[in-house]
Every structure is written in C-alpha cells, then in structure tokens.
Amino acid sequence: MELTESVFPGFVKLYINHISMKGRILMSQKILVPIDGSDFSLRALKHAMEIAKAMDAEILLLNVQYNYNSPNINRFVSKEQVRRYQQENAKEVLDDALKDIENEEVTVHTKIRIGSPDYEIAKEAKESNVYSIVMGSRGLGAIKSKILGSVSFNVLHVASCPVTMVK
Questions:
Q1: Were 65 and a residue from 34, 36, 86, 154 both cysteine, which residue would form a disulfide, CB within 3.0 to 4.6 Å?
Q2: What is the 3-state composition of the chain as percent helix, strand, coil, each rounded to the nearest 5?
C-alpha cells in the first residue's frame, strides 16, 4: 500500500490511499464533471481542475441530453432531427466548457449521454469507475432548484462514489 499526500487549495492536507495489486493501482484517477452550460457547472469544472492537478487525475466532462424521442414529439419532429439537435446542443455546451480550460495541463475527455441527467450521471460514474463527481449545486432548471438542484440532490443520493457540490 502506498500513501501519497496532496495539498488542495482551501484544505489542510488530503491523504489518498492507493491499493496496489501486482503493480496496478486499483483506484481510478478520473473525476466526473457533469456540464450543462450553467454558471454552477462551469464553477464546478474549475474546482475539479484544481483537484485533478493536485491528484494528477483526468477529467471526464459529461453532458446529458434529455431524451426527446416520444410519440408526441415524433409526430412533429423526426427522430433524426431530435438526435441532431441533441448532438449540436451537447457539442456547444462541451466546446464552451473546453474553451474555459484550454490552457490547463490536465487530460480531459468528453462524453454525451441521453436520458434523465441524475440517472445518467450516476450510471456513468459507476461504468467509468471514477474517483469522484464534482458538480454544480444547481443547473439550468431554475424552477426545480429552489434550495438544491433536483439533479444534484438525486446524484448525491444514488452515486456510488463521493460527490462534491460547488456553489
């Protein structure tokens, strides 16, 4: 077992245990950052970048698009048009986020998922075996998020890894 020490801005010290098995580190060095274009998610990304630098971790930027393929919507808009809209919207959000961090020396991966954001964020965290999730306390859904955003609240309760909320 190897014990490493990292210093984070605003924290005294954080000790991270790396459990090795035949020379392989079992702890994932990825931080999942759900991004929706809101100021909260962009602040969460900046916070996650500082953590990633201190841990020598990678960032996985995730944009979740709602699934608009329903019989009522598909009566007026084709599935292909919906898919194109989702891809264009996700690309715009991810490109804007990447511009904010383009000069940083952290490896960043991007991913798009379709579905319910809270479910897809938790599912991606588990599938990608991330170290933690760093997300905004609120997103673009202002009506639902009076105290704590409904997506962030649900992720906090269903995620299989630590979750950090950023205001």
A1: 86
A2: 40, 25, 35
